[in-house]
Each structure stands twice: as C-alpha cells, then as structure tokens.
Amino acid sequence: MNNNPDGTADTKTGITITTTPEDHLIAWLAALAIAIHIIESVLPSPLPGVKPGLSNVITIVVFVLYGWRTAVWVSMLRVLVGSILIGTFLSPTFMLSFSGAVASLIVLWLASRLPGDGLGPIGLCLLAAMAHMFGQFYIAYLLFIPHEGLFKLLPLLMTAAVVFGIISGIIVRSMLRHLEKDANDITAPNRNEQE
Amino acid sequence: MTRADYFAILFAVLLLPYLYATQWTGDKAGTTASIMNGDETTHASLTENRTLQINGVVGTSTLKIEDGKIRFTASPCLGKQCIHSGWLAHAGEFAACLPNRISVAVLGEEPRFDSINF
Fold it and tell me: Whose CB has fewer CB within 10 Å in chain B, the N or C terminal residue?
C-alpha cells in the first residue's frame, strides 16, 4: 500500500490516493481497449451495428488472464471513456455499446462458472460477440425502433457476430500464445476470480 | 479448442439457419379463404384438398384448393383474369372474377398488403 509507482500521492492537500498494481494493470489494458475502440469507430460500417469489435479482443484476453472482475473494469472503462472521447456519450450509440458490453460480460460470467475445461478463447469470443449483438439489438428494439420489422435484420447481424466472433477468437488465441511465451519467466497473476 | 468450444460453435451454426428460417419467411401462409359470391361471403378451409363449384351471375366458376393454396381453375368470363391470378397462398392475396361477381381472398393474422390496385 505504501508504494506509489508514479507518484499519485498528493501530500500538499493532505489527500493520498494509493494505487494498487491491479489499478495500473486495469488502466493500461483499458487504455489499449479504448485506443482500439476509437480506431475502429472510424471504420465505415455496411450496416448499423456491424463492427469487427476488436476491442472485445482485449476484454477476452483480460478475462482469460486476470479473471472476470478485471474484465468488467476494462470493458466498462472502454465503453465509458471511448464514448466520451468519440463524443457519443449517452447517445444511442453509447446505449447500444453499453448494453452489448453488459450482455457479453454476463455471458463471460456464466462461462467462468462452467465446470471442466470451460470455454477456450474461440468459444468465449464467439459467445461474447453473439451476446453483445443480441444485447444491443434488444435495447435497439426496446428503446429506439420498437417495430417488428427490425427482426428482419437479426439474422444478418447475428451472422456478422458469429463471423467476427470467431475471427477475434483466433486473434485472442494467438495473442495468448505470444503472451504465455513472453511471460514464462515472469510470475503471472493468478486467476483468483475464476474460483 | 475445448469441448465447450465445439458446443459453442455448434450452437452458433444451428442458431443462424433457425434465425433465417423464422425471420425471413415472415409471410405466414393463410389457413382459410373467404369466398364472396355476390353479396354472400363463405369461408373455406385450405387444409383439405378439394374442388369447389360456385354458381355466379354468368355461370359456374371452379375453385381448386390444394396444399393450403387456392385458385380459380375455370370461369365463364371472357378475360380469365381470375385464372391468371394463379395460386393464392399467403394471407391477403386476392383474386376476383368480376363478370361472375366471385372473389377469393386468403385470410390470415397478418395481411401482406392493405390493398392492391390493378
């Protein structure tokens, strides 16, 4: 508790903010996810709601390496800060992004409760992408376009979710392999939230 | 790839055709047809195959019901517009023999069109 690696302690006013190593980890990973989120928001999209969702790659990597709680922090910070930086905070875009993120976090929580080997990166990404799509689709239906006709889009959107989910799963798998190779000598934080 | 991964992929692969099948074949087939002969309207079920003879103003029109569809097969009119309308299967589809004053409309929960102008 005494070490403040980047000197965040403010002794002049008597307020001391102590940061744990976990805080720094979350900040770094969230920054990475936010950067990807912003870069991706510039990409043109053929259909509203269809995006590769590459920032979810970070969420899944964090989930696998550091557990569900850290993944929630990184994902929520990404949605919040990302929307503030792009300028969509509290707009429909933000609502959809937020509800999708919440839905995929719920699925990740369920996945962490699975017995046995549980899901690998591809399964996690696939289910998270589908949950993300379904969550934002349902919120879009409830709040913005309450018309039955919207359901005609669902098959297309889900197809995109499945394709991009599997692609990002493959990315996560190769990322984890690289990280494991690099982190062999460093003691990796254990997955305490997984228990 | 764990076993759960394969289940996840299987789930996705099965869900997609289900979604396409349920969402993209939205026009539900009608189950009954209303037949107007002059001023009187009768309802006919489309579930059993049969042929109906209906006596109109000019003569007898023949309607055929087959596999949930209905069509005019013969009519004493000149233009035969009713016969050219072909099979009617979806809710809201409509064919009429104006000279004989007989019209057929397929009923259903959701009509496909509000009205059709020729």
Answer: C
